[in-house]
Design a protein that fits this description.
Layout lengths: L1 H27 L18 H7 L1 H11 L2 E6 L2 E6 L2 H9 L5 E3 L3 H7 L10 H13 L2 H19 L6 E4 H18 L3 H19 L10 H26 L6 H6 L1 H4 L5 H32 L1 H16 L9 H5 L2 H14 L4 E6 L3 E3 L2 E3 L4 E5 L25 H4 L16 H18 E5 L18 E6 L3
Parallel strand pairs: 2-8
Antiparallel strand pairs: 1-2, 3-5, 4-10, 5-8, 6-7, 9-10
Helix pairs in contact: 2-3, 5-10, 7-8, 7-18, 8-9, 8-13, 9-10, 13-16, 13-18, 14-16, 14-18
Bound molecules: protoporphyrin IX containing FE.
């Protein structure tokens, strides 16, 4: 009986304490003009619910509080916007009190000149320099042949093997970018670089606690090692005075003398290119393989497009710009994959001053989560939205409509969009013309907070019959 009373007492005490803590946290963030919503627990906020329930958490909060609500996720008081109109407004109006709001660990590890850490004129300069490295003419003249050469060798000898396509597409995204950046030297760099780069990526997504054995610490170390490797490469090139037709060559020439970046800025620019194109390109490629496997009619149509291109060429001829431009259905497959899998859930911004948005007053220093996921499943834009239907993208107006946020929007719209599409298209070209594949089965796929196969996505590959 006494034990029973103690248990009841403890349970009641815990209930009271929880109610007090939740109330106290609500009061702490109670400010006139803020949107409705809940702030969860002190310090942790609603992060656990957000990570556990993912999209359902967002949809439930929207049902209770409307499409703009407050919360406390990933360590910050946050305004979540699921309102397409407001999302567009925020993306279009950077500078007027809104700047990127990416986590501290990401900014520390990617460097102080990385594009997400700079705004105003510094952003304009870094972005200008980057755009001139990946413009359509540079892709046509320099990059496409490097991608083609890389994909051919990367896709060699997959036949009669079980392949983890997640691992292969990750390696592909990194090594293909490295080849574009440092041409011939990339093969010397690649092994050591790859190990450090994977540590760097994990570090950017960790809590910024700089103690030995934390992912953050390992990420900072990895950054140091990558910076050292790139500095050595730059020194080497300066000494040899050879000209190189690759991204580093362009950067060192001041991108044809228009954008003069310091060595530190060049290195941060390179790390930005590698980082930004890594998970986006690899996950889209992996998910395209998954959807193509599950939709034989789409695979048949895609293969027809690529075999048609091959028929016009000799076996060893590389893909050229006209081939790439003719890949209309491939482009549609890539967009439909990005939409249905939602590779990017949204983007983060931060207020630099108190400001009004949609009639709400947002305090200075709050994060804004421009959550664009749900627009991908809007039946008005995409009839029958949960069906994988690439044909819908053959109407090009879908790519130019106001709520096409797969590559972001406004002043920070993805500068690597065409490069990413060219890489995935070239990968698909060699993959579907060389191979058939079936899934080994049983692999789990997670959709949130990132699309990933925690234990890999295994496929059994065989040659396409001649
Ligand atoms: C399928 C592939 C890709 C997808 C889905 C994608 C998606 C996005 C999105 C949504 C943004 C907006 C971020 C924001 O507003 O904060 C963005 C920005 C960016 N992307 Fe991509 N991206 C892809 C490939 C690439 C590639 C290959 C590169 C390499 C050059 C790249 C470089 C960047 C950079 C540097 C930014 C920041 C731009 C700025 O802040 O001005 N992306 N990307």
């Amino acid at each position: 009986m006494a034990i029973f009373t103690v248990i009841i007492g403890v349970v009641l005490g815990l209930c009271l304490l929880s109610t007090f803590l939740l109330r106290w946290n609500e009061m702490k963030y109670k400010k006139k003009g803020l949107p409705p919503g809940t702030m969860g627990w002190p310090l942790f906020g609603e992060t656990t619910d957000f990570l556990k329930q993912g999209p359902s958490f967002m949809k439930n909060q929207r049902a209770r509080y409307g499409s703009v609500f407050k919360s406390h996720i990933l360590g910050c008081p946050t305004i979540v916007s699921m309102d397409p109109e407001l999302n567009r407004f925020i993306l279009m109006n950077e500078g007027k009190g809104i700047i990127p709001g990416y986590p501290q660990s990401m900014l520390d590890i990617l460097g102080k000149s990385n594009i997400a850490a700079v705004h105003g004129p510094a952003h304009k300069n870094m972005r200008g320099a980057l755009l001139s490295l990946v413009s359509p003419s540079v892709i046509r003249e320099q990059i496409l042949s490097k991608i083609d050469e890389f994909m051919r060798s990367h896709l060699l000898n997959w036949s009669n093997q079980i392949i983890d396509i997640q691992e292969k597409t990750k390696e592909m995204a990194l090594l293909s970018s490295l080849r574009q950046i440092s041409g011939t030297e990339s093969s010397l760099l690649s092994k050591e670089f790859m190990r450090e780069f994977f540590n760097l990526v994990v570090g950017t997504l960790s809590l910024p606690i700089n103690l030995p054995n934390t992912n953050y610490h390992r990420g900072l170390q990895a950054r140091k090692n990558i910076v050292r490797m790139l500095e050595e490469l730059i020194d080497e090139r300066r000494r040899s005075q050879e000209t190189h037709k690759d991204m580093l060559g362009l950067l060192m020439s001041g991108v044809e003398n228009r954008y003069k970046l310091s060595d530190e800025e060049m290195i941060d620019q390179i790390i930005t290119i590698l980082y930004s194109g890594y998970e986006t390109v690899s996950t889209t490629s992996m998910m395209a393989v998954k959807y193509l496997h599950d939709h034989p009619r789409v695979l048949e149509e895609l293969r027809k497009e690529h075999l048609g291109i091959r028929e016009r060429k000799m076996a060893e001829d590389p893909l050229d710009w006209n081939d790439y431009k003719s890949m209309k259905f491939t482009r549609a497959v890539i967009f439909e994959t990005s939409r249905l899998a939602t590779i990017v859930n949204g983007v983060l911004r931060k207020t630099t001053k108190e400001m009004e948005l949609n009639g709400f007053v947002i305090p200075e220093g709050w994060r804004i989560y421009v959550y664009t996921r749900e627009i991908n499943y809007d039946p008005c834009l995409y009839p029958d939205p949960y069906t994988f239907n690439p044909w819908r993208w053959l109407d090009r107006s879908l790519e130019t409509q106001n709520y096409f946020f797969i590559f972001g929007g406004g002043t920070r719209q993805c500068p690597g969009k065409e490069l990413g599409i060219a890489e995935i298209s070239t990968f698909l070209h060699y993959f579907v013309t060389k191979y058939r594949w079936e899934e080994v089965g049983g692999d789990k796929l997670m959709k949130f907070p990132r699309v990933e196969a925690p234990n890999g996505l295994h496929i059994r590959v065989s040659d396409m019959p001649k």
